[in-house]
Amino acid sequence: MDVGIGLPNAIPGLDGRRLVDWAQSAEGRGFSTLGTIDRLVYPNYESLVALATAAAVTERVRLMTDILISPLRNNTPLLAKQAASVDNISGGRLVLGLAVGVRDDDYKASGIDFAARGRILDEQLAEMKRLWSGEPVDGLGGVGPEPAREGGPEIMVGGGVKAAYRRAAQYGTGWTMGGGTPDQLREGRQALDAAWAEHGRSGSPRASALTYFSLGPNAEENARSYIHNYYGAMGEDTASMIAESVATDEDTVAGYAQAFEDAGADEVVFFPCSTDVEQVELLAGALGNRLSY
């Protein structure tokens, strides 16, 4: 199983220049993927911009939006162009994780119908695939640049409903679980495999899991502070439940990695609760020989 690490792009107070140090440190320590979390009405750094920054200072590590709320980007040719640009700049390392999101404030700020987000995502997936194949926009011309990979960036679809697994099988290489337990990952993996077979796809789809970690001094305090800030709008009980699930010691990190692997994950991406780049070293130490140097 691959093990990735999230960029701290959604942690309030981040000095954006720290993304460079974080990305270089993560690649040097052998993490498989650098991930980003997406919001609009929140003081996070925009996901594709953050990954373009990481692309410029790394050579090997995958760059994953985990996930990007793509219906907020309702100019699909522009979104396709942005994704193709990052994919081209990085030499084909972009993994475009896409989902609809659950917060209606992001949609209100964008003037987009929250109830239509599923339909919008379906339309975007189909259109981006056409654009990346070189099809012109309404006869006006292509959007370019060409993605580094034929057919466009790798797509992973997030979400826990039947439509998410159907989208993953129809357009993607797999599915990503944006938080949850190993048992939920196992159930999602089964639903993904069923959708994959139903669509006549060959091979095996990828399944990825997102989880949180916070290590070192003040680990629990940092976890509570960030998780309640980010998830507070979902209610105190929900935020507290997520905060309590954060891996705050080495044994829990190692245990989570093993549990997700046993549940059928092809990759787990650990997202930080602190902007301190030392978190990269601490996570690498907890994971030991799971990382490829």
What is the secondary structure topology, with strand pairs?
Blueprint: E1 2-6, H1 18-28, E2 33-36, H2 47-56, E3 62-69, H3 76-89, E4 94-99, H4 104-110, H5 117-132, E5 154-158, H6 162-171, E6 174-177, H7 182-198, E7 206-212, H8 219-231, H9 236-245, H10 250-262, E8 267-271, H11 278-287
Parallel strand pairs: 1-2, 1-8, 2-3, 3-4, 4-5, 5-6, 6-7, 7-8
Describe this structure in words.
With 293 residues, this protein is α/β, with parallel strands linked by helices. The chain has a single domain (2-290), classed as Luciferase-like domain (TIM Barrel, Alpha-Beta Barrel), CATH 3.20.20.30. Helices cover 45% and strands 15% of the residues. It has helices at residues 18-28, 47-56, 76-89, 104-110, 117-132, 162-171, 182-198, 219-231, 236-245, 250-262, 278-287, and strands at 2-6, 33-36, 62-69, 94-99, 154-158, 174-177, 206-212, 267-271. It has an eight-stranded parallel barrel with strand order 1-2-3-4-5-6-7-8, surrounded by six helices. The protein starts with a strand and ends in a 6-residue tail after the last helix.
